[in-house]
Structures are given as C-alpha cells and as structure tokens.
Amino acid sequence: MRVIPAERITEAIKDLAIRANYDLGEDVLTALKNGRDSEESPVGREILDQLLENAEIAAKERVPMCQDTGYAAVFVEIGHDAFIEGDIQAAVDEGVRQGYEEGYLRKSIVGDPLRRKNTGDNTPAALTVEFVPGDKVTVTIAPKGGGSENMSMARQFAPAVGRQGVIDFVVNRVKESGSNPCPPVVVGVGIGGTFDLCARLAKKSLMRDIGIRHPDPFYAELELEILEQVNNLGIGPMGLGGKVTALDVHVEYYPCHIASLPVAVNMQCHAARHKTAVI
C-alpha cells in the first residue's frame, strides 16, 4: 500500500487550477487552428483568429484566458493500492482556495443557491472520486464556466427513442443554445446509468482530448455523426454564422435500467480548460 499525504493533493490542485486558466491545451489550440482553416465565413475566421490570439496572450502574460474562471470541477482517480492520508475534499478545496487566490482568478461560487452569498475563495469544488487499478492518484481540474454550464441538460427518455432520438436531442440542445455557450463548443454526452450518473458521464467526457474518438467503434461513429449535424446548424463561432459550431463531440456510456434511457448534454465553451497530474 502506497501512502500519499493529502497535502500532495492540495499542491497539485493549486498548480493545476492556475495552469488550466492560463494555458489552453494543445488539443484545443490545434482544433481552433483547424477550424480557422476550414471556416467559410469571413467573420467566423476573424473570431477564431481572435480566440487564438487571446489564448496566446493569456499564456504569455500569465493571465486568465476568460474572466469566468469557472466552477472547479475536480476528478480524482485513486489506485486500489494507494491510500490518501487525510480528508480528500478538504485537500482539494484548499488547493482550489490557494490556486484561485495566487492566480488572481475570479471567485464565482455562492455558498447557497438561493441565499446567494459568495464564498470568497471559489470553494467548495465539485469533486468526483473513482477507484482504479494501481498505486497512483490522478487529479484533473476543469474550470467550468457558467455560460456553457447553463446550456446543459439531462433527460430521461423511453428506450424506444433509440439512437436517432439521442442524436436529435443532442443536436437540438446545441441549436437551442445558440451563441450562449460561446461557440465553437465541445459537446459532452452521457448515455445510460441513472439520472445523475449520465450527467457525470457527460462532464467526464469533456476531459478527453479533442480529436480522440471513443474506443468503441459504435460510439466513435455516433460522435462523428452528431458533430457533422451540429456543424450543419450554421451557428458558427460566437453564434455569428459559419460551419465551425463545435470543435468535437465526446460520448461516454454506462449500463442502464431496462425501462430507461437517460441522456445528458454538458456544453463546454471554446475555452475547453482542463489539466491533469499523476501523483
């Protein structure tokens, strides 16, 4: 059994919170460049150029790429042969607290959804913990902006809607979202599980690098079909028209009840921010 002090989690989260807000991943930068090359709309190409310039300035000047530095969505994968010595939630929250303070990142969390007083340090984080083989601990943070999160949706369908019903739901969600999630977006889709699990699957799918297809060919094909239909909507960069509405579509699935077909869509803006460290 490998013992890992909780302080190691705090240190990693602090660093990742800052870097996620400053440094857009190479996968996203490449997708934006490819989108710029394929975009037919002059306005769309100009917007994509501006997004790339913005990312370059953020990385060079060490400032946030967006004023909405997001809800700290944190995923922790703990190896079966690893033991975290201490309170995981407290360690993650302390890392977020330190990172958002030292990184001059906007604090966007209210402590109560109806009595809306800001917590002042962007905590608590939205923490998901999974157990996996091995003795390592993998931590990922994804600052999730409110504009794209507000356009997300989960539905409980009857199984009879089938594959086409899922496609229609996802494409229509993007269509109805319009410019609100700051396209070009990444569309995370969760299928199966329970009402809550399908939403977690949708968010977790956004942690996958752009351009990496689902390992199951059936779902890889589904991702590409949805992506094509989404980019035929004509919404375009920042909703001003064009063919690059989405940079990618990611699908994750899980077994579900015979009477149910849960589906969730988690929208992600063009600033698809996430960073990972292995401890």
Please summarize what this structure is.
With 279 residues, this protein is an alpha/beta fold.
Written account of the structure:
This protein has eight helices and ten strands. The chain is α/β, with parallel strands linked by helices and 279 residues long. The protein folds into two domains: 2-22 and 65-144, no CATH class; 147-272, no CATH class.
The helix/strand series, from N terminus to C terminus, equals EHHHEEHEEHEHEHHEEE
How many structurally independent domains?
Answer: 2
The SS-based structural class is alpha/beta
Morphology: globular
Question: Helix fraction?
Answer: 25-40%
Spatial arrangement of strands, main beta sheet: 4-2-5-10
The oligomerization state is single chain
Mean pLDDT: 97
Number of strands: 10
State the low-pLDDT regions, or none: none
CA radius of gyration: 19 Å
Strand content: 15-25%
Query: How many helical stretches?
Result: 8
Q: Could you give a short account of the major beta sheet? A: 4 strands, mixed
Distance between the termini: 14 Å
